[in-house]
Design a protein that fits this description.
Blueprint: E1 5-10, H1 14-25, E2 38-40, E3 46-51, H2 56-61, E4 67-71, H3 72-85, E5 91-96, E6 102-109, E7 124-127, H4 130-139, E8 145-148, E9 164-169, H5 173-177, E10 180-189, E11 191-196, H6 202-222, E12 225-232, H7 236-242, E13 246-253, E14 260-267, H8 273-281, E15 285-291
Parallel strand pairs: 1-3, 1-4, 7-8, 7-9
Antiparallel strand pairs: 2-3, 4-11, 5-11, 6-9, 6-10, 12-14, 12-15, 13-14
The structure holds adenosine-5'-triphosphate (ATP) and zinc ion.
Adenosine-5'-triphosphate binds near residues 12 and 53.
Length: about 300
């Protein structure tokens, strides 16, 4: 019997749904039951362990899970922590997953005068990422105090507990609500598929390679769209020029209308409303935009 490959995923939160959908799109069949910690994938010898995201690096570093999906912010903080005890690398990055994008940023209160990292000298900075922050400050030759908080970091300046914060930012709305302004980016983060450095069987390695290949095929497809439309023959060239990253269109006759053709194209990038409106103004009609499920090249 092939030993089952064990992957750690976030149980609940921002990474959870994207991780589950990604694995489902890769053809893994499983059912996540309420509070279950472990789920068996039915059609592959893979088990999914659902935990808090903060536990994922340790589970992988210690070999209790063979791989996992984690935000690079949590991964790199855990790596710095592990490096204090075990200098050798404890994981390998397999693939960035292009989701859960956010930035680890330093933000200061709106009224504070800020003229670069030197303005943080001697200040107190609240964060859940003390090691990434310390690493950044050292590189900037700035000496500041760190206040470690598990959550609600953004309220620390208002409560008089800190002069600045170092926290995750995506839309910036939380900062705005707390009258804070982002001034420095410490890290650009996204979800990432990792594996441990412990040895796994050949079959498990094949499974992991297959998963990485399928994820790449899914990601490739997600970025593209299949576009079909009718176009006047004499406007075909100008219409195709408006479509982002179009790869050799398929052009077919439109029965009953000799002046028009049917065009099928795969666009290499997302298609935005203004592009569609432009091609429509150039004469394109019956425009269909279809999601692509998989692309194998
Ligand atoms: P858990 O209960 O698993 O510890 P959590 O509260 O630490 O959950 P979430 O808020 O679900 O974690 O965030 C998980 C990850 O999502 C973050 O570590 C980060 O990689 C990513 N993320 C994307 N955008 C944001 C954001 N605006 N704020 C926080 N995390 C974000
Ligand atoms: Zn967490």
């Amino acid at each position: 019997m092939i030993p089952r490959l064990r992957l750690a995923l976030q149980k609940k939160g921002r990474l959870a749904q994207d991780s589950i959908s990604l694995l489902e799109r890769c053809g893994l069949q499983f059912y996540v039951k309420g509070n279950a910690l472990l789920t068996h994938v039915q059609n592959f010898p893979i088990d999914l362990l659902f935990v808090r995201d903060d536990d994922i690096p340790t589970l992988v570093f210690d070999g209790l899970c063979d791989g996992g999906i984690i935000g690079s912010n949590v991964l790199l903080e855990a790596e710095l922590e592990a490096a204090l005890r075990f200098p050798q690398k404890k994981y390998q990055s397999i693939l960035p997953l292009d989701n859960c994008h956010c930035r680890l940023m330093i933000a200061v209160p709106e009224g504070m005068s800020y003229a670069g990292p030197a303005s943080l000298e001697g200040k107190r900075i609240a964060t859940s990422y003390p090691l990434l922050l310390a690493d950044y400050l050292t590189k900037q030759h700035v000496s500041a105090q760190t206040l470690f908080l598990h959550g609600s970091v953004e309220v620390a300046p208002r409560m008089g507990m800190a002069d600045a914060i170092c926290d995750l930012v995506s839309s910036g709305q939380t900062l705005e609500e707390n009258k804070l302004v982002a001034v420095e980016t410490i890290l650009e983060s996204q979800a990432i598929l990792i594996r441990g450095v412990h040895s796994i069987s050949e079959q498990q390695q094949e499974l992991l390679d297959m998963l990485a290949r399928r994820i790449q095929a899914v990601q490739h497809a997600l970025k593209r769209k299949y576009i079909a439309f009718h176009a006047p023959k004499n406007a075909l060239e100008s219409i195709c020029q408006e479509l982002p990253g179009v790869e050799s269109p398929t052009i077919l006759p439109l029965p009953g209308d000799p002046d028009k053709v049917v065009v099928h194209v795969v666009s290499a990038e997302g298609v935005f409303w203004n592009t569609l409106e432009t091609i429509q103004s150039l004469g394109a009609s019956s425009i269909l935009i279809l999601p692509i499920e998989k692309i194998l090249e």
